[in-house]
Predict the 3D structure of the following.
Amino acid sequence: MGTSSDRPTLAEPATTLVPQEQAYGYLIEPEVRFLDAAVARLIPTDELGPGAREADVTYFIDRQLVSSWGTHGRNYRMGPWREGTPQQGFQSPLTPQEIYRAAIHETNIFCGKQYGKPFNLLTPEQQDEVLHGLAEGEIELESVSSRLFFDLLLRNTQEGFFSDPMYGGNRDKIGWRLIGFPGVASAAYAEHLEKHNVPYRAEPVSILDIRQNRVRLDAQGYPKHRLLSGKD
């Protein structure tokens, strides 16, 4: 974990706004239900705004799994597969596709034995117990390290929540609105360089917005930001 070769090579950007009902390329229905429930606990909807499920993070993960990253198409895969240190990065012989498929199935088996239901039907408190068990390596999965799976899931959830919407997640720039990130820079940034400790509040602009001609551009091709008032 943590090496550049283990970071997702983002799948081809979408050319249209992500619809509410997506066609998944790799994940099957039980896996979609599992991930919808899991990401909703990792980044939940709260008083600050919508969470990861509403931001279509599950769809983002699917988009990455069908890309070359999902099959480790650009990685050396001949082994040996010894237990590595955190500094040595990803050491599993399994691809991200294989990790997700095996780990979701085996976690649901654990949930069935422990609670009598699959993960997505558990109470939020029970789901948190399972996620903590995966994170701490306390739940033993047959095919893959539970800690490895959780680390991958958490990182992909964060990526899907904050990446440009053209990659399938961060619907309506939910993640960017949460942290006040304006997205693609405006050419007018020089006007704000000397305005120290003054929040820059603008309607976020994504690469997808530009590709779909949803924002105005200046003569240099930079988006013109719409600044927000204190009431927005």
Summary: The helical segments are 29-42, 57-65, 96-115, 124-135, 146-162, 174-179, 207-211. Residues 4-177 form one domain. The first helix runs from residue 29 to 42.
